[in-house]
């Protein structure tokens, strides 16, 4: 191999290495948003039909569509702890004003009436930065 080819090959190899390093570092970046997460862990009353449980979880999405300031919802629990809790949902609020609208909104009050009739207990922390 001639000297210019060796230099070009070395530069290409260095470029690939640096590009791979930069790409790997980008994967480790994260943000600290100021949104508010409302997390609810649910323990259903014994004997609650699956259809009623699903209706309550789907109701979170319907409710979110009506309340200004709700950014995202999650209704599919992958793993729930503590033991004895069965499902979970998360609501992301844009800010505290959106959270306050949620608390007082008629859609939430209607949803909550059904939810409380079929849940045994729930744990609902809220988290923000």
Name a few traits of the molecule.
129 residues, alpha+beta, Alpha-Beta Plaits, 2 domains, 4 helices, 50% helix
Describe this structure in words.
This protein has 129 residues and is an alpha+beta fold. The protein folds into two domains: 1-30; 36-127, Alpha-Beta Plaits (2-Layer Sandwich). The chain has four helices and five strands; from the N terminus they run αβαββααββ. The chain has helices at 3-27, 50-66, 96-104, 106-118; strands spanning 36-44, 70-74, 87-93, 119-123, 126-127. Strands 1, 2, 3, 4 and 5 form a five-stranded antiparallel beta sheet that branches. Helix 2 (50-66) packs antiparallel against helix 4. The chain is elongated and about 80 Å long. The mean pLDDT is 89.
């Amino acid at each position: 191999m001639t000297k210019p080819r060796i230099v070009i090959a070395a530069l290409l190899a260095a470029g690939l290495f640096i590009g791979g390093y930069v790409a790997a570092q980008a994967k480790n970046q994260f943000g600290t948003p100021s949104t508010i997460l409302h997390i609810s862990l649910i323990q259903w009353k014994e004997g609650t039909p699956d259809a009623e449980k699903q209706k309550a979880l789907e109701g979170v999405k319907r409710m979110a569509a009506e309340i200004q300031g709700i950014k995202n919802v999650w209704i599919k629990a992958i793993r729930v702890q503590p033991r004895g809790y069965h499902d979970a949902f998360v609501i992301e609020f844009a800010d505290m004003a959106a959270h306050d609208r949620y608390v007082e909104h008629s859609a939430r009050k209607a949803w909550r009436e059904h939810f409380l009739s079929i849940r045994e207990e729930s744990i609902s922390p809220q988290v923000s930065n």
